[in-house]
Amino acid sequence: MKKSESLKQYFFVLRQLVSRELKRKYARSYLGILWSVLNPMLSMAVLSMIFSTMFKKSIQNFPIYYLTGLIIWQLFSTATSTSITTLVDNRQLLLKVKLSKETFVLARVFTAVANFGYTFIAYIIMLFVFKIKFNPYMLLLPIDVIFLTLFSIGMAYILSTCYVFFADINHLYSVVLTLWMYMSAIFYPIDSVPVSMQLIIGYNPMFSYINFARDCVLNAKLPDATDFTQIAAWGIVSFAIGTYVFKKNENKVMQVS
């Protein structure tokens, strides 16, 4: 089989797996994909009522500030948390079908990316509602999402591999995600916390992706070279390490029941 045909077949299978995951996710939901649009809007409304007064002086357009951080965070958290069990969930299929194991992990990640696309519709609507003017730096958002996706894939590779050998990683990661979320300055300004905490948050990869998006949308400015370097480095390094861990253990994965 020619390489081009092999790639076409690979991407066809990947699309089918993503479609299957989307159908499974919304199988029992009356509103279906609409929930991906409504969920961030409802969350924004609730958090805005709680925190907008508290941070009114330090954050302009708090609802959009929060929503920007939320949709970036949800892409990452959904991509990684749903990928943890994918190798175990699809073990029988992996034994029967000659298909690269990472395809199933990628399917979970790209399902999260597809959901992000639906959520982004709500985000655009809210930009209009809150009269956020278009600026050319908004066109840089896809760069942020691409490197965030690479970062998520790397993490998903590591987590899905670890879960095969240590099932408790699923529970531990849910705790880590909660702590990670609060350390990502999603609903508060970073300068509202002590300097020592600001330094820690500054090294948080998720804060880098969130801050990049906020600069493009809310601050209407070009992120500086450091911001570009950080989001690219986190994405590339995570993807490289995750791929290495996954490839090194992929044969052992199938030997573990």
From TrEMBL:
Statement: the UniProt record of this protein carries the keyword Phosphoprotein: no
Membrane topology summary: Multi-pass membrane protein
Pfam assignment, any one: ABC2_membrane
GO cellular component entries: ATP-binding cassette (ABC) transporter complex
GO molecular function list: ABC-type transporter activity
A biological process from GO: lipopolysaccharide transport
InterPro entries membership: ABC2_TM (IPR013525), ABC2_TM_bact-type (IPR047817), ABC_2_transport (IPR000412)
Protein name, per record: Transport permease protein
Species assigned in the record: [Bacteroides] pectinophilus ATCC 43243
Organism lineage string: Bacteria, Bacillati, Bacillota, Clostridia, Eubacteriales
